[in-house]
Design brief:
This protein is of the alpha/beta class and 237 residues long. The chain folds into 2 domains: 55 residues, no CATH class; 153 residues, 3-Layer(aba) Sandwich (Alpha/beta knot). The protein contains 9 helices and 7 strands; from the N terminus they run ααβαβαβαβββαβααα. A 7-stranded parallel beta sheet has the order 3-2-1-6-4-7-5, with helices on both faces. Strand 1, helix 3 and strand 2 form a beta-alpha-beta unit. 34% of the residues are buried.
Length: 237
């Protein structure tokens, strides 16, 4: 769902629910029910920011973990490295996510400014003395988890901007985890804590309508043809 987490721009807002109903007739009831069930577990209370990941298999595994643990939004900062996926690892997970990419100007600042505007606390994985553990990280508001590269971690810019830092406690001699492994642990633990909390973590009905419409469009061979037929039937040119 890169750069496409909205229904067709030619469809008036008042007709989006009708479009969803129309599109649902082009997929099986089983698939529609599956989509609805998955959406009930989707959240935007947690989101993930991947900064300058340079190995496609790692970022693909992160996207797969996001999808599996119900994280809808992923933000990718490409100051140094271009975002690429490895299809054999992502297994199509990226198409079910809302992916925002930041490549121009000060990508870090643009990304974090947007997240703050949307009400997120910025937290980052970093082995700092003042960092809390993943179990103690406060989740009393929407949280954006920033993951850096394996070699360098998060950038200095993220370190200056982050609200909180946390670590994954380890008992071995190796002091770091693979990026995708770290992401998987973080998302499992944090999403579990959020779902067990009193936070309003679920998507609202408008969000569900938009995402479900996109998912159905992704399931069709010629979605724009179907949408044009819907518009024609409803007198929209």
């Amino acid at each position: 769902m890169q750069a496409s987490n909205h229904v067709a721009h030619t469809v008036p807002d008042a007709m989006k629910a009708g479009l969803l109903e129309f599109l649902s007739g082009f997929i099986t009831e089983e698939r529609y029910t599956r989509f609805r069930h998955v959406l009930e577990q989707r959240t935007r209370y947690l989101t993930v920011v991947v900064e300058n990941a340079y190995q496609s298999h790692n970022i693909s595994a992160v996207l797969r973990s996001c999808e599996c643990f119900g994280i809808q939004d992923v933000h990718i900062i490409e100051n140094l490295n271009e975002y690429r996926t490895h299809k054999d690892i992502a297994l199509g997970a990226d198409k079910w996510l809302s992916i925002s990419r930041y490549r121009q100007g000060n990508a870090v600042e643009s990304c974090l400014r947007k997240l703050r505007r949307d009400g997120y606390r910025i937290v980052a994985t970093s082995p700092r003395p003042d960092a809390c553990t993943i179990w103690d990280l406060p989740l009393d508001q929407k949280t954006a988890v920033v993951l850096g590269t394996e070699l360098d971690g998060i950038s200095e810019e993220v370190k200056q901007a982050a609200d909180l830092f946390f670590t994954i406690p380890m008992a071995g001699l190796t002091e770091s985890l693979n990026l995708s492994v770290s992401a998987g642990i973080c998302l499992f633990q944090l999403s579990k804590r959020v779902r067990e909390s009193k936070a309003e973590w679920k998507l609202d009905e408008d969000e569900k309508t938009v995402i479900l419409t996109e998912w159905i469009k992704l399931s069709l061979n010629q979605p724009e043809t179907v949408i044009r037929e819907f518009l024609r039937k409803n007198g929209v040119k």
